[in-house]
């Protein structure tokens, strides 16, 4: 080991103000201390893992001060607290995020360098905490960071899944899932809190005792807390992520064990641990399994018990709960919170029915994240009644009360056709219901909650999603961040609206060159990674065209794939026609049981294999689909994107957040009028956005023509050629009929209107090609995208929730 001696070193170069930051030497000494005393390792014989752990512990020590200070101030001032209940927190890697927010990036790099270690290697060693599927879980993670930046006294509550979202591999182009294993190594960011543990019951029955309903559960488990601090920008505030792990309530059965019945002896433990074993890998569609309902209740009940315990340690009357507590439900997954909060207030704290309902409603808010009919959670009354008998009683009475109070039509009930509609339950039990983009919130009023909205016209509001500029710019795109700092100052990191001041620089040729150089550097870095990991040679001067998101038919990766085939076909016919070279990137996982999405993955990989082997078009077109897309891969791809693919069938994508990250990082969008694309286009300007396709209204109308797909295909030579090539086995010569089913569906069951939008998409793509050939114009528009995307900070979103839903002020002075 080539360690240089510890010198009396200078102060760190970072720009954070107001924080007492350690010097390089102090941090170096801390890292060495943790190496020796926490990990019991000798610096000379330490692995990369050891260095990462020691570095993480050293950084974690620095998080404690702001974390304690925020906690203490919240107690001392009796401030109102926000609780964000979510089955998913897709937090990704934490080391670099913490270093950046604490202003210690350069200090740590220097401290490690003095020990012969490379910070980037250590950062890369950290596994992604993939405790979420996609946008909904990543939004929860951005919110925790923004609440810590804006100064909200906040806890996130979720499940400490032993296995997060599965890992994806491709075998012969097909997705293969293997378990994700992030906890196989100790997680350095969490603190076990065995003293914060609650009993959660299931099953059994509800009985009357002295006129009061009492639930006698048939099974119980223990929820045990693990806390992770989340520090905001410049360490001025911090929030807490509290995740629950399932433990048995009964002692290990020693007698059975001694009698040789090892399985039975361990049964209670296995049952309890199942609750926090694995994240359901379904994005946008509910699993509908008993275990999932149990997981939802497990998280929600533990959270509410913890919230009431903390409240009662500080305040006396539960009637005042909504003055001091706001609870936000991330979709319907924790919607059992309504009946559970009422149960706790009534059965354990002797509150009457009406008051319990009033208090619960004033405390709860519900965010809807999807309108897909198949995505709305419903549980059979049989399952709900057997897993949660007391809650079933409460739900029925909530429903009856609501029917009486509002003389409502029969179609509105929570319980319908022997199913509990969790959306309706969440709506009725919340004082505010919000959608996640302007368009989505309007559609929520018109569709799923049409009748309830009429009865409660002031309940639905909009809070357009956002993303944290710390992770999605400062951390992931240092090249552009530095250029922004030099050009408009560093204020954008805390207040993304500062980006507006970049606008005049779009006209400045010298700035455009610097901007282009930053983008190119990111593309060169990505090209190097693609070469190293996939062995594909790509040209950094080609347009990098990127579609990264979960695989879902409504997101229409298939439309992009068809256009790729058409482009290739056209390029082959006239290779010298002045084509704009492109690299098409795809990234994303399919739910394991989603056959059609898996078939689309297979096709994209077959198309990539064919195109990438073609010498005629090798300099013009490549297709890259790296396996196992996750948060860290997003951080690599987004800064290098020229074109952002946001091409969902209009009316289907509630918001999208990848669209915001890509715009912020200077990609131009090709997209439909769907979700937050509408707001992106309004803000960046129609001239700086490639619009195509039917509108949400147009989609509904077009669907009424049952021949819409056939007519569109017959009208489009390009699309006919594409389908013909696929059906002939051009991309699967070893199995020519591999995609007959897929092509048949394209003709006859095109629910997401791929065919109807194809020509319009093709035209928009050619407009993008043309613009890319004039780099001055492309870069000007890209700069305007950056300058006008300040609205998409999750800090702005959080301020919206604070004002419209939570009624919480910032705890920070400035
Ligand atoms: O939530 C994101 C939005 O930006 C996306 O448009 C939306 O699709 C996404 C069941 C979901 N909606 N619903 C889910 C996830 C997991 C699950 O088990 C549903 N995810 C979204 C953030 O608002």
From TrEMBL:
GO terms for molecular function: glycogen phosphorylase activity; pyridoxal phosphate binding. It catalyses: [(1->4)-alpha-D-glucosyl](n) + phosphate = [(1->4)-alpha-D-glucosyl](n-1) + alpha-D-glucose 1-phosphate. It is an enzyme of class 2 (transferase). GO terms for biological process: glycogen catabolic process. SUPFAM superfamilies: UDP-Glycosyltransferase/glycogen phosphorylase (SSF53756). The modification N6-(pyridoxal phosphate)lysine is found at residue 661. Its EC number is 2.4.1.1. InterPro entries: Glycg_phsphrylas (IPR011833), Glyco_trans_35 (IPR000811), Pyridoxal_P_attach_site (IPR035090). Keywords: Allosteric enzyme, Carbohydrate metabolism, Glycosyltransferase, Pyridoxal phosphate, Transferase. One of its GO terms (cellular component) is cytoplasm. Phosphorylase is an important allosteric enzyme in carbohydrate metabolism. Enzymes from different sources differ in their regulatory mechanisms and in their natural substrates. However, all known phosphorylases share catalytic and structural properties. Allosteric enzyme that catalyzes the rate-limiting step in glycogen catabolism, the phosphorolytic cleavage of glycogen to produce glucose-1-phosphate, and plays a central role in maintaining cellular and organismal glucose homeostasis. PANTHER family: GLYCOGEN PHOSPHORYLASE, GLYCOGEN PHOSPHORYLASE, LIVER FORM. Belongs to the glycogen phosphorylase family. This is Alpha-1,4 glucan phosphorylase. The gene is malP.
């Amino acid at each position: 080991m080539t360690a240089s001696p510890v010198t009396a070193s200078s102060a760190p170069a970072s720009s954070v103000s107001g924080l007492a930051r350690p010097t390089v030497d102090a941090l170096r000494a801390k890292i060495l201390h943790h190496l020796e005393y926490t990990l019991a390792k000798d610096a000379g014989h330490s692995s990369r893992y050891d260095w990462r752990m020691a570095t993480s512990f050293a950084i974690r020590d620095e998080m404690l001060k702001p974390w304690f200070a925020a906690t203490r101030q919240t107690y001392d001032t009796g401030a109102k607290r926000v609780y964000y209940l979510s089955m998913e927190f897709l937090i990704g890697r934490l080391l670099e995020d913490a270093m950046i927010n604490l202003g210690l990036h350069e200090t740590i790099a220097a401290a490690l360098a003095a020990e012969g270690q490379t910070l980037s290697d250590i950062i890369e060693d950290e596994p992604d905490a993939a405790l979420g599927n996609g946008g909904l879980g990543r939004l929860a993670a951005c919110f925790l960071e923004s609440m810590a930046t804006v100064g909200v006294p906040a806890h996130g509550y979720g499940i400490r899944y032993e296995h997060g979202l599965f890992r994806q591999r491709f075998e012969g182009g097909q997705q293969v899932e293997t378990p994700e294993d992030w906890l196989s190594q100790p997680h350095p960011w969490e603190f076990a809190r065995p003293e914060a543990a609650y009993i959660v019951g299931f099953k059994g029955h509800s009985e009357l005792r002295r006129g009061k309903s009492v639930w006698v559960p048939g099974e119980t488990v223990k929820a045990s807390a693990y806390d992770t601090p989340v520090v905001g920008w410049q360490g001025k505030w911090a929030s807490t992520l509290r995740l629950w792990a399932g433990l048995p309530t009964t002692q290990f059965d020693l007698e059975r064990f001694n009698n040789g019945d090892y399985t039975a002896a361990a049964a209670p433990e296995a049952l309890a641990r199942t609750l926090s074993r694995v994240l359901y890998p379904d994005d946008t569609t509910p699993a509908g399994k008993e275990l999932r309902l149990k997981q939802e209740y497990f998280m929600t009940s533990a959270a509410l018990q913890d919230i009431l315990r903390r409240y009662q340690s500080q305040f006396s009357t539960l009637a005042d709960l909504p003055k001091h507590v706001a609870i936000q439900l991330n979709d319907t997954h924790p919607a059992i919170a309504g009946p559970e909060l009422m149960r706790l207030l009534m059965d354990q704290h002797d509150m009457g029915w009406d008051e319990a309902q009033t208090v619960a409603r004033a405390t709860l808010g519900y965010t809807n994240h999807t309108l897909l009919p198949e995505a709305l959670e419903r549980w059979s009354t049989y399952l709900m009644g057997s897993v949660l008998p007391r809650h079933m009683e409460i739900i029925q009475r909530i429903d009856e009360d609501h029917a009486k109070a509002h003389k409502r039509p029969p179609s509105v009930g929570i319980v319908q056709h022997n199913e509990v509609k969790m959306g309706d339950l969440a709506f009725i039990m919340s004082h505010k219901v919000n959608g996640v983009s302007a368009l989505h919130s309007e559609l929520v009023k018109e569709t799923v909650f049409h009748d309830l909205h009429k009865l409660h016209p002031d309940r639905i509001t909009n809070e357009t999603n956002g993303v944290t500029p710390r992770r999605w710019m400062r951390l992931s795109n240092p090249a552009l961040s530095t250029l922004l700092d030099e050009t408009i100052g560093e204020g954008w990191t805390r207040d993304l609206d500062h980006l507006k001041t970049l606008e005049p620089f779009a006209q400045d040729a010298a700035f455009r060159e610097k901007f282009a150089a930053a983008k190119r550097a990111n593309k060169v870095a990505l090209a190097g990674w693609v070469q190293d990991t996939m062995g594909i040679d790509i040209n950094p001067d080609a347009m990098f065209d990127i579609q990264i998101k979960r695989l879902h038919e409504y997101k229409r990766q298939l439309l992009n794939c068809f256009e790729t085939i058409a482009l290739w076909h056209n390029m082959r016919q006239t290779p010298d026609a002045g084509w704009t070279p492109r690299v098409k990137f795809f990234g994303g996982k399919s739910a394991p049981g989603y056959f059609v999405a898996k078939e689309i993955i297979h096709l994209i990989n077959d198309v990539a294999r064919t195109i990438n082997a073609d010498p005629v078009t090798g300099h013009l077109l490549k297709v890259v689909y790296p396996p196992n897309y996750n948060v860290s891969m997003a951080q690599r791809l987004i800064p290098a994107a020229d074109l952002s693919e946001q091409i969902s069938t209009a009316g289907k994508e509630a918001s999208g957040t990848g669209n915001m990250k890509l715009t912020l990082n200077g990609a131009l969008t090709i997209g439909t009028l769907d979700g937050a694309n509408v707001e992106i286009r309004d803000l960046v300007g129609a001239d700086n956005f490639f619009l195509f396709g039917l509108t949400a209204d147009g989609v509904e109308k077009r669907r009424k023509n049952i021949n819409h797909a056939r007519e569109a295909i017959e009208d489009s030579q390009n699309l006919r050629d594409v389908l013909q090539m696929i059906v002939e086995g051009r991309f699967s010569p070893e199995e020519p009929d591999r995609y007959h089913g897929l092509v048949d569906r394209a003709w006859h069951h095109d629910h997401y209107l791929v065919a109807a939008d194809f020509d319009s998409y093709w035209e928009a793509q050619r407009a993008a090609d043309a613009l890319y050939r004039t780099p001055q114009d492309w870069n000007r528009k890209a700069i305007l995208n950056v300058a006008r995307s300040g609205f998409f900070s999750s800090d702005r979103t959080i301020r919206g929730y604070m004002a419209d839903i939570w009624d919480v002020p910032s705890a920070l002075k400035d």
